[in-house]
Design brief:
With about 240 residues, this protein is an alpha/beta fold. It has a five-stranded parallel β-sheet with strand order 4-3-5-6-7, with helices on both faces. A two-stranded antiparallel sheet has the order 1-2. Helix 1 runs antiparallel to helix 2, helix 6 packs across helix 10 and helix 7 packs parallel to helix 8.
Length: about 240
């Protein structure tokens, strides 16, 4: 498998480890590898993880803090409360709100390289799509998984912005993967593009009910996939 199908290294340490592990089964060791990088304290470029006050969110969006407070109080913007009653907003929830409002996502909320996870047991198809995305959508990190179990591990550790998810996978199928993504408060804002070679109205209804953002039958149209990726995870 080619190096280009995985995230670009962000430090000398990561480059050294990355070159070493490529001689093994890259998909299977990917989560462990990222854990080592995190333990070393290397910056891998992710969406902000600390909670935001209404003032911080307001500055990012260019609005008043009262506007943000009103969105929270009306239920439009999800937020928690500190023991002292102050509103606190998860960055992922703010991104989801901005997307619903069809506004431009502030650069301060975006990672330098939005992440797309491709999940398909047809390895050649997944690698082809990865190469197309990297050619047509430069600036995105592209990760691969070939079964639902590995996809779940990568989703939990990497929090991709978009998951292109085949519905018919060995073991844990795409329907269950999608349900788990949407059931977890840490991953529910991930956009899921469901793809399948066994298209039917029932499959489309089922996966959309599970929380998918889009549904696309195979054979896939590369330009259409790229357009959806740009829509769900715009570059900053």
């Amino acid at each position: 498998m080619q190096n280009r199908n995985f995230t670009c290294c962000t430090s000398a340490v990561e480059r050294e480890i990355h070159s070493y592990v490529l001689s093994f089964s890259a998909e299977r060791i990917y989560v462990t590898f990222r854990g080592v990088i995190a333990a070393l304290g290397c910056n891998v470029g992710r969406i902000k993880t600390s909670k935001l006050s209404t003032l911080q969110a307001a500055k990012l969006l260019g609005v008043s803090d009262q506007s943000v407070a009103n969105w929270v109080d009306s239920g439009q913007l999800k937020a928690g409360r500190t023991p002292g009653g102050h509103r606190r907003i998860e960055p992922d929830d703010l991104v989801a709100f901005v997307k619903r409002q069809k506004l431009r996502i502030p650069a301060g909320l975006l990672s330098a390289n939005p992440t797309v996870l491709l999940v398909d047991d047809e390895k050649e198809l997944a690698q082809w799509l990865a190469s197309v995305l990297q050619a047509e959508c430069p600036g995105y990190r592209v990760l691969l998984a070939h079964d639902g179990f590995l996809a779940g591990q990568i989703i939990a550790s990497e929090r991709p912005d978009v998951v292109v998810l085949d519905l018919h996978l060995p073991g844990v199928d795409g329907f269950e993967v999608c349900r788990r993504i949407k059931a977890d408060p840490h991953t529910r804002n991930i956009s899921v593009i469901a793809v399948t070679g066994y298209a039917s109205p029932e499959a489309e209804r089922s996966i959309m009910d599970a929380g998918a953002s889009a549904y696309m039958p195979k054979p896939l149209e590369a330009k259409a996939i790229c357009q959806l990726v740009r829509e769900f995870a715009p570059l900053g």
